[in-house]
């Protein structure tokens, strides 16, 4: 009897260790359903309805056992200047998961929206008095931050990074909450390795790629993310810019590498019809699970991510179908694209590409920018072999690449 109980305990504990937790659509739905309900009246910056959202977020952080990292508990109050006349009392909500690490990952989303249409930003011609629920913009992103917080607080793993979870206010009035935080941080920003921002991740359409922004802010993104997304079977397109119309911009300008997840604009954007019924909860959970895989891969890398300034504001997008496993020099201006490094056991290495090589042509496509390269990759399928023209020093080589 004793023996069998012991055996059972061993089996149970092995099971518990081997178990990996995932983010569930049900939990995402729960958060969005509260935050985008009529009771919160569209979470206008500085309103008492928005405060209910702040209290909900703070209570959730507390329940997870996160440390309060605002200036008043989990809250960081600030003055939001709507214009020169109106100054609103707003607050960010900040929770911290201390893993005793040297580096920190910031995960953020804005929780304010357009309220009842009296503040600026609505695209409805008669906005005043209409509740703008903002289910996608951005109850979806807040649900993402909350569920990522739950994942990292409850997964039983001590990561090599600490985590700072922030829900920003006054984004709709001009990224005011994230700007305030970046200028008045409650942790040492020098220890922040990178920042992830979620703004509108509720309209996942399996037929369309999601957008990952901030791609050019670190060469590491291009190395780590494509294989993860391939494994998760998620199509994505990229936007290279670190600056854009959401809160990651405030961290990018502090020279922190950023990523921005986004399922795309739609006809309900900034209108009262951005409602709960239109949210794809299963799709959002799928995105968030791809995000934990991405973070977990990044967590294992030693040292700090390299920060890069992005030249182009809102660069044009490209689809990835296949990858080569190359680390590229995003600051190189051509002709050709410059390889900084080559990942092991990927098509680039197998073809004999080396660090320092310039790839001048891939198949029929002349490469002069990173975007030419990404556009070319979008044209090829797995298993296909194409010829690449490579410049190595003074030598020109023809290499065969099999994707
Ligand atoms: Zn938004």
TrEMBL record:
Residue span(s) of domain Peptidase M28: 92-287
Domain PDZ: 333-401
InterPro entries assigned: M28_fam, PDZ, PDZ_sf, Peptidase_M28
SUPFAM superfamilies: PDZ domain-like (SSF50156), Zn-dependent exopeptidases (SSF53187)
Taxonomic superkingdom: Bacteria
Listed GO biological process terms: proteolysis
Example of a GO MF term: metalloexopeptidase activity
Protein name: Peptidase M28
